[in-house]
Specification:
This protein is mainly α. It contains five helices and no strands.
Length: 105
């Protein structure tokens, strides 16, 4: 890689340090979905139809795309629910409430 490109890459990745790993995880998930689709559809597999499906549903979690495209919902129970709060967020809120109550006159 030439020095100018390397510098731009370093700047880009230092301003958004999670972007590279997020990209890589998504890439691996799509490759896994592609392999599963090829196995399930066999000779009937159409890479153009797969590409169009993933492109059209790009903002949908891969687990939901897998469920719709392949009928496999094994990863769906692992998805966070919209109305769920994580245990750490709940405990953090509770700690803040307790601290605020203890500081009150």
């Amino acid at each position: 890689m030439d020095p100018a490109t390397a510098r731009q890459e370093a700047i880009a990745f230092s301003t958004g340090p999670g972007q590279a790993i997020t990209y890589q995880i998504g890439k691996l998930q799509i490759i896994k979905l592609l392999a599963e689709a090829r196995l399930q559809h066999g000779e009937k597999f159409n890479v153009r139809a797969f590409h169009d499906f993933v492109w059209k549903n790009g903002n949908v979690p891969i687990a939901l795309q897998k469920w719709e495209y392949l009928g496999l919902n094994d990863e769906v129970p692992n998805l966070p629910r919209a109305n769920q709060t994580s245990a750490s967020a709940r405990s953090s809120k509770e700690l803040n409430r307790q601290t605020s109550s203890a500081d009150a006159p």
